[in-house]
Amino acid sequence: MESEVKALLETLNCVQSSLSDSDLVSQLRQHGEKIISLLKSPPQQIKREKIKEMSSEVIDSNPYSRLMALKRMGIVNNYEQIRNFSVAVVGVGGVGSVAAEMLTRCGIGRLLLYDYDTVELANMNRLFFRPEQAGMTKTDAAVQTLLQINPDVILESYTINITTMDGFNKFVESLKRQVMSHTRGGSTGVDLVLSCVDNYEARMVVNQACNELGQTWMESGVSEDAVSGHIQLLIPGETACFACAPPLVVASGIDERTLKREGVCAASLPTTMGIVAGVLVQNALKYLLQFGLVSKYLGYSALKDFFPTMEMRPNPQCSNEACLDRQKEYLEQKPARDAAKAAAELESAESEASIPLHSDNIWNISVVEDHEPVSSVSTAKQENLPDGLLWELPTADTLETTLSEEILAENGDLDDLQRQLDALNAS
Amino acid sequence: MESEVKALLETLNCVQSSLSDSDLVSQLRQHGEKIISLLKSPPQQIKREKIKEMSSEVIDSNPYSRLMALKRMGIVNNYEQIRNFSVAVVGVGGVGSVAAEMLTRCGIGRLLLYDYDTVELANMNRLFFRPEQAGMTKTDAAVQTLLQINPDVILESYTINITTMDGFNKFVESLKRQVMSHTRGGSTGVDLVLSCVDNYEARMVVNQACNELGQTWMESGVSEDAVSGHIQLLIPGETACFACAPPLVVASGIDERTLKREGVCAASLPTTMGIVAGVLVQNALKYLLQFGLVSKYLGYSALKDFFPTMEMRPNPQCSNEACLDRQKEYLEQKPARDAAKAAAELESAESEASIPLHSDNIWNISVVEDHEPVSSVSTAKQENLPDGLLWELPTADTLETTLSEEILAENGDLDDLQRQLDALNAS
């Protein structure tokens, strides 16, 4: 562009010496017009070209060499398959934007982004967004940055509020749309949904959509004091859904944002948000590329560097109808699943070595019951709740009446266990 | 800029109609020169203005509202003091660049950056650098991005290789230079050094500089297979230095990079690097702003989501002379430190309540020895090392001859303990 203007100045010298030549003037105008068209092109040119196939060649110009090296290191069997996966990131804030950037840099096939908010300077204490993006929608700003980082990723952005009726329908439709051939965890068009929203209502909406679609998802959250967070894997029917074990206290039907006092906002830190985004996407990579142990729940407490883990089974009394449907399906499919698993294990054992299988049981090892009740939260309840909040879980009185049903359910499970053993013997 | 060129075109129309006026031509040249000067100014204009004082006002345009909220949440007593701190980040790669960005977004006072490498497309699988920065030095690219994110931070960049004699001297001089009044942990001009380098040699150099200066620092690292990492706090004389417990195997004097086979590179992931940068800066914030528990060592194993912690005492037989000097100083200052601590505790106990202090010792609680020997690594040594590697730790035979000295040292410590008790009673 600069040389263009220099050429213009050289032409001017000629104009000065031979003012009678009118061709020079039209030449000047051409220079000027070219400058304008150059200025109208995007301010930041995307310099990185699209790459057809991921290569493991170790050269400075290969953006995938360090990822393909995961194969040689024996961590991932087939890294290239990351290009087949579609991941939805719901909420492009402090956690979601960083998660989207990590997936983009890893070369994910297709990324679906959902948010209705705009970038503000008040977001600058977290990674990803830049001050000059203030005022843009978070989805537009994210697409601008991510496209520049890796043009190989298919980006779809949805500037919608999923907690509205219309937004929810669009959300579900977008998840169902099948764009790529290969998918994991469900019959939808995406392999995984990552929830990176910042409120209870939106989490319940993601939960509803994923329960209805039988879609595996991961939930993430950061506390209001910015020093703790968590991620959780949710497989409809197999693990607890978000409604199976809701938070102890929730907003009573009114907008959570109005609950907060005027002039008060939650604290946040780029460190905590970055760590939660990191463990979330790490768990997603382990799930998609099938390496390591996929965590069911991983907490993070910054003050003591404590990382609790746990597992939550589905609640047979969950308030979510779609969850109960998925639980039923999961139980129905259990004998077939167990038989397939046993057959696979038998095959693996036979192929590895001809070690005799013991038919006796001297150590008294038995098949463990698959449906332990959800562990009850032992936090002592404080009776005086602030206005606008109510207890989500039933009180002990309410619970007692449902205990007899639970015992019945347990007996049902024993019968089910017998059926599984029969299926195992039959296979 | 566009209007400037449009004005130029309008002038051209005049030139066409009145070619005899030579003033118009000089006017044209002025336009051209102004365009060039505009083009030479930074391509991305910094839109965020400098902010004189951190405010906790909850408005969208305040980039510090979510950080100042840490005070109201009871996490940090005085967040604004972050502006008084100087932090050095050595190595601006996958971990260092993200650490620098986190500190910048947190509003750190002054940031010193050290790297001699250039940005390559092969770095794009980690956060921070953008493809269009390929070819720039990492320090220049980092300053470009960080200045735009937060113009309030004082940025100093050093494009030097600290492992050269000249680079080392410049490194030490830059750490000593006192620019701001308030500093923590030493008599240098920085409050903390974060080591984010990727090789043993550079770590030993940071270790040497910090031991010489008595500078508290934190070390970080990520494994070659990209699925584990760690951070460590090093306080010269008080904790183990990097030479006190070196890695089992190190390069034998030759360049580590040539050790690697042709066409082979280490794997890396934006997730692991982001998590390590996150826990590193979180630990730095806890250390600087004095909240929570500052971790001495925190490991991260991605495959199993395992986060080991440990503590390493200094090695009285450390090969690093400066470390031994700091250990000696630390021991000499121990009686005074203990007396001050006991006095502070006494004062705190007296002011809190008038609970009687027990002079008897029914639980048999005693002062624990401060100098346990460094825990020995129990990994079975493999005898056949590849060419270019050697064992860093002495073999059992070599160690045996030094054991008697160790016993003497232990006796010395007991005398020291007696002196401490005397000092305690005297105060």
From TrEMBL, chains A, B:
Residues 64-319 form the THIF-type NAD/FAD binding fold domain. InterPro entries: D-isomer_DH_CS1, ThiF/MoeB/HesA, ThiF_NAD_FAD-bd, Ubiquitin-activating_enz. Keywords: ATP-binding, Metal-binding, Nucleotide-binding, Ubl conjugation pathway, Zinc. GO terms for molecular function: ATP binding; metal ion binding; UFM1 activating enzyme activity. The keyword Kinase does not apply. The keyword Metal-binding applies. GO terms for biological process: protein ufmylation. One of its GO terms (cellular component) is cytosol. Belongs to the ubiquitin-activating E1 family. UBA5 subfamily. This is Ubiquitin-like modifier-activating enzyme 5. The lineage of its organism: Eukaryota, Viridiplantae, Streptophyta, Embryophyta, Tracheophyta.
